[in-house]
Amino acid sequence: MTARTASSRTFDLTELGDADVYKLLSCAVQPRPIAWVSTVDGAGVRNLAPFSFFTVASRNPATLAVSIGERIGFPGQDKDTLVNIRETGEFVVNIPSVDNAAAVTASFATVEPHVDEFDLAGVTAIDSLQVAVPSVQESLISLECRLAQAVPLGTDTLVLGTVLAVTARHDAIDEHGYTDVSTGKWLARLAGPYYSNLTHSVHQGGGPDAGSFR
Ligand SMILES: Cc1cc2nc3c(=O)[nH]c(=O)nc-3n(C[C@H](O)[C@H](O)[C@H](O)COP(=O)(O)O)c2cc1C
User: Fold this and answer.
1) Given the CA of residue 105, which atom of ligand 1 is nearest to it?
2) Which domain holds residue 131?
3) Residue 208 counted as domain residue
4) Is residue 17 part of a domain?
5) Tally of domains in the chain
6) Does residue 67 line the site of ligand 1, with CB under 6 A?
7) Is residue 214 included in any domain, yes or no?
8) pLDDT of the residue at 6
9) pLDDT confidence of residue 205
10) Could you tell me if residue 37 is inside a domain?
11) Tens digits of per-residue pLDDT, 117-148?
């Protein structure tokens, strides 16, 4: 075994506060994709919020995972997104483009539940195919989900959603299943207030070449 050198630093999480642990995780796990989650409440009010603790959880059934923390400034209370997902059992994960960055930030605001966050963010709601929740027209891809499980994990809740339908813009995924990040359209979250537009892809092998869907 090789001895540790002074070129790295160790953090004992039991000695760190929640804010520092969050910072550490955000630095260690990046870039992260952004789930721009649309939901509606029982009265049909539209909500939109970004979540970067987000990934694919299963291929079959196609499942996404989004981790939702407590309402900012109100420990123990749920964010509107989670309240709505529990109430309706549906949500849409919209994948924002770089052009949506300002709108993503606008939808981060913690506002009263009755505020329409599509209007707040200045984006267009379009009908989804299989859920009653609208999708964001300006996003690159919209993945319509039905709630599969909401798993409590301490302060956060891991929402698992079964993907029912996907709508992708032609400049996000073309008809042959190709995607090209060098267009600079893909938006990723880095640590803190930083984002990346992922302009390079490096071919290293290790995955199937993108091919036709059929
Ligand atoms: C880029 C970005 C990523 C975020 N990721 C998360 C996340 O993964 N989990 C979380 O609970 N909040 C996250 N937030 C904060 C929520 O978006 C914020 O609390 C939002 O106001 C929740 O809105 P809601 O109460 O309408 O659900 C993120 C914010 C930004 C700007």
Assistant:
1) 31
2) 32-196
3) no
4) no
5) 1
6) yes
7) no
8) 87
9) 76
10) yes
11) 999 999 999 999 999 999 999 999 999 999 99
Question: Which position has the higher pLDDT, 113 or 55?
Answer: 55
Q: How many CB atoms lie within 10 A of CB 41?
A: 15
Ligand 1 geometric centre to CA of 144 (Å): 19
What atom in ligand 1 is closest to the CA of residue 110? 21
CATH of the domain at 190: 2.30.110.10
Task: Report d(CA 105, CA 121) in Å as an integer.
Answer: 8
Q: What percent of the chain has pLDDT over 90?
A: 78
What residue type is assigned to position 93 of the chain? V
